[in-house]
Amino acid sequence: MTISELGRPPNILLIDDNRGDAKLMEIAFARTEPPTRMTVAPTAEQGLEMLQGRGDMAPEARPDIVFLDLNLPSMHGLTFLELVKTDPDLSCIPVLVISSSKARKDIADCYRRHANGFVTKPFSLAGYVALAVSVNEYWFKLVQTLSG
User: Fold this and answer.
1) What is the pTM of this model?
2) Which domains does the chain have, with CATH numbers?
């Protein structure tokens, strides 16, 4: 079953310490059909707490997808990615890295830790909207999910 077939808005967890980038993501995904439910965590630690049901996100509202910035304060995005992808309770949640980096090493490091995708951050609202539309079409309307 796809997320769109579940009859509820898709749940997104965005982990990004840049408030401007987070706001652009929120605006972009609000323009998709159906609009999404987005929770923003400014640190990887907060994102991990939310995924484990210890933060602001209830366990029944587990995200359908996580967007992860790499360069975060305290815990780096790669550490978060490794923790999530080696946890049997969390490893099936798709994690898309969204970073300003285009470095081959960063991209390779993410895929070695089982990231489900790596996207370079857009520079404009129009770029974020294009990203949101693509994610919506692929991850929420085409891909089969384990979410319920």
Assistant:
1) 0.93
2) 4-140 (3.40.50.2300)
